[in-house]
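Subject: for your reference before the review

Hello V.,

The reviewers asked for a structural picture of the protein, and I figured it would be easier to keep everything in one thread rather than splitting it across files. Below is the amino acid sequence we used in the manuscript, unchanged from the supplementary table.
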Amino acid sequence: MLISRLKLKNWRNFREADVGLSSRAFLIGANASGKSNLLDVFRFLRTIAQVEGGGLQKALKERGFMSKLRSLHARRDPEVSIEVELLESLDPEAKRWTYVLAFKAEGKGAQRVFITKEVVTCNDREIILRPDSNDLSDEVRLTQTHMEQINNNAKFRELAEFFGSTTYLHLVPQLLKFGEEISGRMVESDPFGQGLLQRIARTPQKTQTARLKRIAEALKVAVPQFSQLQFRKDEVTGAPHLEARFDHWRVNGAWQREEQFSDGTLRLIGLLWALQEGDGMLLLEEPELSLNDAIVEYIPLMIDRVLRSRKKAARQVIVTTHSDNLIAAVSDPGWVLLLELGENGTTIREPNAEEFVAMENGLNPAEVLLPKTRPERIEQMGLF
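And here is what came back from the structure prediction:
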């Protein structure tokens, strides 16, 4: 299943947004234009659909409720709305789903957030439409979505399972290197890769070995002197560790644990593991960080090759980036989405006809689109 269209109203940076999505999407824009906030829409839906401890109220609480979620450009309109169109597959005959969720604060007293609209359709056939008569007779029901309730989502549970399977990754190498010293609380759903080693440990042995072997083949090309990667548990503490062997003047080389890996090596391992793990939408935040430009150029190709080799259904990947090397290597210019700042918030769009013509005549997406993310008067930075 994949999301084919996203419509937003009053969501953070976006007063209004309406954009089509493909199996791959690469988001570009200036700093603070809303790339991460756009990814957060899918994380918001994931929290709502989570079977354990999820729901609308938790998703709102994690984001500071309506005062921090509602767009500053909304003016008098208090409602936040999310609409997604989904396809079960790329087959023209596949089922088409629509999910709409709108909500707003009650405007008095405790400022509770109530659902103003929840709609699910399949092939244009309406499955649920809220508020219904039961909601109108008991307004507290409108504090919860049917999406999060097992008793009410039986007819569209596949949507809930899809939203709940979304993976977000913005790996912070230091949290892996110094995990024992930091001993920090792991954020739910592990967006920063703190639990990467634990996830590897929980993977069945045969699958784990196959994935690590594939990662090792990539690292042999990307990391000088690298020759072998293995997973091992500490004999004393039982803590999971990754170990890599690097060739040097000694015959057997030298083994290093993850705390000795470079930041780029850890981020590359995390990226390649995430691509092989899970079935839902994958959200990648600036995967180019800490990586050599020559490696960054091959990230789009790596994503395609890893996902094409899967025996499971196609997986949707959405990437945010500032890298011209990465965008230049995108094979389909239509996958690049441009976020542009304006007086009424951020807008998001695909390349226009003129830009497509430029790319068809030899220019790559980075040369055509990235200059449009350049802040005005950026030259003033040099006068600081």
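For the response letter, the relevant points are probably these. The two ends are 49 Å apart (CA to CA). The mean pLDDT is 91.

Happy to draft the paragraph if you're swamped.

O.
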